[in-house]
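Worked example 3. Consider a protein that binds heme C.
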Amino acid sequence: MRAFLLIVAISVSSVSSATSASSQPPNVATLYRVHCVMCHGPMGKAAIPDMAFIGRKWKHGTKSTDMIKIITEGVTGTPMMPFRGKLKPDEIKALAAHVRSFDKTLPPEK
Ligand code: HEC
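Given these inputs, the predicted complex is written out as structure tokens:
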């Protein structure tokens, strides 16, 4: 458990430094923990393969703009609900980059 928390802490600090351009970067790891982890699992390692972000092909595209669209609009007919109105656009943007970063097979985006 302690090792897991450490890994989360490290990923938080690397993500927040990457997004520190905006004046108040949302704490993306907290957002993920509150809104996403129950389905998508820590670091995107979900118990249910359909909800994992790693170890399978992305269904809806691998660009962070694709992920922003999914998080904003949801996927009709699946448990993936739209987060429009629940999260601010910059929070959704940060979450898209965050879940994308779980998949180390993807090249970094410019
Ligand atoms: C109630 C469960 C649930 C919650 C909560 C949830 N998701 Fe999902 N999510 C899913 C499911 C199921 C899918 C797969 C949809 C499909 O089959 O197309 C999915 C798909 C996605 C995808 C597209 C994956 C791909 O393969 O292209 C992204 C990105 C995503 N979710 C991000 C998030 C983020 C970020 C959050 C938190 C803000 C979140 N999800 C919260 C269930 C959930």
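Take a moment to read the result before moving on. Residues 35-36, 38-40, 50-51, 58-60, 67, 70-71, 75, 78-80, 83, 95, 99 surround heme C (CB under 6 Å). Residues 41 and 47 are 7 Å apart (CA to CA).
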